[in-house]
Amino acid sequence: MKINEKHLVSFATGNSPADKEGFLSKRGEVNKSFQKRWFALKGNLLFYFEKRGDRDPIGVIILEGCTVELAENTEAYTFELVFQGAGSRTYVLAAETQEEMENWMKAIACGGYDYMKLMVMELQKQLDEINAARRLSAATNVPAVTANLLDLDIKSQGQTRFNPFDNTEQKSSGDVDAFGAVPFNSNSQKQCEFKELHEKYGLYIEQKMAAHTSA
Amino acid sequence: MRTNDSALKQVARQIRVDREGRLLYRGPKESYRERWFRLKGNLLFYCRTTSTGAMLDPDPLGMLVMEQCSIQIEPYGDRPFVFSIQFQGESDKKHFFSGQNQKQCEDWVCALRASSIQNLKSRMEELRSRIKSIQGADPVNDMIVIPKPPNR
């Protein structure tokens, strides 16, 4: 399979800092003895060099679809990177101390793409919940509670049902999304001149686009 | 440089990927050839197509790692609906992709730009600091997310 190797090598040795670096012993595929190598983890790419300071890595292990497991054999501080599929190599790596082994296992597990994606989704969800609570708090003058939105539901009898999507006052400190922009509120009852609308929402759209293209 | 090829082929063969579709592809110093592209995470695989344009063989011909690269729409390209990828460390060498319509082209550009782990990391940091500035506490400290092994 063709891989743009030159780019990978440049990524390995480039200015971007490694998430973790250090010596590990790697067991050979054919020759079952362990060889000490310098490893550098960048995201989900685990590069290894013959020695520290080498310009070009001798190999890369792309950490997609693998599990990190403790090794069953008798070698101390050994762990494995297990890949799926017939003929896929299991990489056996050994650290020098228990702590180093645990640190590497954790770094590799957290370097995976799916894990990072999960974190982003989780944080986005948290931010959405915070914003929803703030919206409610702004409208009902109840202190914002992020935990259970149901707690803020109609506890006071006799009041008409509150619709959180009615925004009679649009405060500037309202919903703030991850780009720091104020979202368009289609429920606004105000009659605006086109010029006003253009200025207000044009900036928001511009910011979104700038964020999009710089991503 | 050695890579874990056979493991990567397994990734490429997965049923569910983030995005896939047919594009004409021209690597540096090559001519356009029709390929089936599959994006999984920050890995862009490409495979051969049949005469009717479907994916011929899930075993990929090649893979591009989507880190440290810049993706541009090429409005003055040699074909309509073209975008390019340029990788850092390979200046003056661009990879060109030609789609079937404007929307497909733009959708791919958006997906590819968002695909790098670098992008995920900066989004994470942005969300983290946003939440911290509102709530005062670092949300990551409270999150106990135990990485689960992928489904076998």
TrEMBL record, chain A:
<dbReference type="InterPro" id="IPR011993">
    <property type="entry name" value="PH-like_dom_sf"/>
</dbReference>
<dbReference type="Pfam" id="PF00169">
    <property type="entry name" value="PH"/>
</dbReference>
<protein>
    <recommendedName>
        <fullName>PH domain-containing protein</fullName>
    </recommendedName>
</protein>
<dbReference type="GO" id="GO:0005802">
    <property type="term" value="C:trans-Golgi network"/>
</dbReference>
<dbReference type="GO" id="GO:0055037">
    <property type="term" value="C:recycling endosome"/>
</dbReference>
<dbReference type="GO" id="GO:0007032">
    <property type="term" value="P:endosome organization"/>
</dbReference>
<dbReference type="GO" id="GO:0042147">
    <property type="term" value="P:retrograde transport, endosome to Golgi"/>
</dbReference>
<dbReference type="InterPro" id="IPR001849">
    <property type="entry name" value="PH_domain"/>
</dbReference>
<dbReference type="GO" id="GO:0005829">
    <property type="term" value="C:cytosol"/>
</dbReference>
<dbReference type="GO" id="GO:0001881">
    <property type="term" value="P:receptor recycling"/>
</dbReference>
<feature type="domain" description="PH">
    <location>
        <begin position="17"/>
        <end position="113"/>
    </location>
</feature>
<dbReference type="GO" id="GO:0005769">
    <property type="term" value="C:early endosome"/>
</dbReference>
<dbReference type="InterPro" id="IPR045188">
    <property type="entry name" value="Boi1/Boi2-like"/>
</dbReference>
From TrEMBL, chain B:
<dbReference type="GO" id="GO:0007032">
    <property type="term" value="P:endosome organization"/>
</dbReference>
<dbReference type="GO" id="GO:0005802">
    <property type="term" value="C:trans-Golgi network"/>
</dbReference>
<feature type="domain" description="PH">
    <location>
        <begin position="16"/>
        <end position="117"/>
    </location>
</feature>
<dbReference type="InterPro" id="IPR045188">
    <property type="entry name" value="Boi1/Boi2-like"/>
</dbReference>
<dbReference type="InterPro" id="IPR011993">
    <property type="entry name" value="PH-like_dom_sf"/>
</dbReference>
<dbReference type="GO" id="GO:0005829">
    <property type="term" value="C:cytosol"/>
</dbReference>
<dbReference type="GO" id="GO:0055037">
    <property type="term" value="C:recycling endosome"/>
</dbReference>
<dbReference type="GO" id="GO:0042147">
    <property type="term" value="P:retrograde transport, endosome to Golgi"/>
</dbReference>
<dbReference type="GO" id="GO:0001881">
    <property type="term" value="P:receptor recycling"/>
</dbReference>
<dbReference type="InterPro" id="IPR001849">
    <property type="entry name" value="PH_domain"/>
</dbReference>
<protein>
    <recommendedName>
        <fullName>Pleckstrin homology domain-containing family J member 1</fullName>
    </recommendedName>
</protein>
<dbReference type="GO" id="GO:0005769">
    <property type="term" value="C:early endosome"/>
</dbReference>
<dbReference type="Pfam" id="PF00169">
    <property type="entry name" value="PH"/>
</dbReference>
